[in-house]
Amino acid sequence: MSFQTGLSGLNAAARNLQVIGHNIANANTTGMKASRAEFAEVYAAALGATGGASAGMGVQVAAIAQLFTQGNLKITGNQLDLAINGAGFFQVNAPDGSPLFTRNGEFKLDKDGFIVTNTGARLQGFDTDALGQRTSAVTRDLTLPTGQPIPPRASGITAANPLSRGIEITANLDAGAAIESPPTAPLTEAQKRFGTALNAFDEQGSPVAVQLYFVKTAANTWQIAASLDNGNSLLAGGGALTFGANGQLVSSAISNITIPAAVAPATVPSSALTIPLTLADPAGTPTLTQFGSRFGVFALTQDGYAAGDLTSIDIAENGVVMARYSNGISRAEGQVALANFRNLQGLQPINGGFWAQTFASGPPTLGGPQEGGVGLVRQNALEESNVELTQELVNMMVAQRSYQANAQTIRTQDQVLQTLVNMR
């Protein structure tokens, strides 16, 4: 029986050395989680046995446990390198469509714009609106529009943008400005004293330079006029502004600015642009004031833009993938999904740094980063292996000594049997 005991020790020590060797071999593997061999005693079952009477039959490997502790994060500068800081896994779909899970965030773009692993598995995520708010709980393959430009959008009210806010202005008008006559074309130099300019865009994304002029026509009363040629002629639209004694906007009689098709020749077919003037923030607070300080425009935006090509990708800690374009537009293209499991030890490790779910692990819980106990996502970084190389080398020496000791057990038993054989 001592032979069996020693042999079980040899087998267990050999298996332990195999696990330690696997850890050491993968000390530089991105996202790798170390394993350890866990042992249990072996006893023979005997009828009528009493407690303390069994010497035991050796040892067995009870389990190979994985250690899901956090690895160090390494900065790479690659915009598609992702690391999870905390719990969770990236979900990817293998080429055959089966779901897999990984901590290795070495992602790339394939020829079709899909975000993929080195093996071609596609990163999964959620649909979002243009601002990054999730719109679906169903995951899909995340893609980036690398092969096509973002189409242009005309400024102002269009069929695709019926609720346009048009030109939004935040400015202060000088309360001490001189009173001028109401603006008519051509504007005088005094009437053009307080003005600003911006580019609007037609339906093909061609810029149209628009000048806005603020003319004080009475105490606490101003008029806005718009022009395309420095005030030599005026566009339809604009109107009057009235301020209270405290400098706040009291009322406005503003109409949309209309740019006729004749001055937007790049538009095919020719069409006029209708651009609202928005003088309040989304909450309704006026953004124009009349204080006793110099005229100043603090913010001036409009909602049209030219066509643009993808220039960079930003992935936030909450997993929202923001694409940035050459025309200055940023648009969310989805949100990275993270998965978690109730029983991590039930996951089945497979080739390539992936895990597959099993009956023991249970189904994954999917959500965004920082939701449901999962961690956050770090862009431009990778999670290093959590193997402690020094500790593994010490473990290897201990396992080697264990193997030698069990071999000595067998050798000693052999000597005992040899002594019995030689007895006369």
From TrEMBL:
Residues 3-31 form the Flagellar basal body rod protein N-terminal domain. Residues 172-305 form the Flagellar hook protein FlgE D2 domain. A flexible structure which links the flagellar filament to the drive apparatus in the basal body. Its main location: other. Gene3D superfamilies: Flagellar hook protein FlgE. The lineage of its organism: Bacteria, Pseudomonadati, Pseudomonadota, Betaproteobacteria, Burkholderiales. It is found in: Bacterial flagellum basal body. GO terms for cellular component: bacterial-type flagellum basal body; bacterial-type flagellum hook; cytosol. It comes from Serpentinimonas maccroryi. Keywords: Bacterial flagellum, Cell projection, Cilium, Flagellum. This is Flagellar hook protein FlgE. Residues 378-423 form the Flagellar basal-body/hook protein C-terminal domain. GO terms for biological process: bacterial-type flagellum-dependent swarming motility. InterPro entries: Falgellar_hook_FlgE_sf, Flag_bb_rod_N, Flagellar_FlgE/F/G, Flg_bb/hook_C_dom, FlgE/F/G-like, FlgE_D2, LlgE_F_G-like_D1. Residues 83-146 form the Flagellar hook protein FlgE/F/G-like D1 domain. Belongs to the flagella basal body rod proteins family.
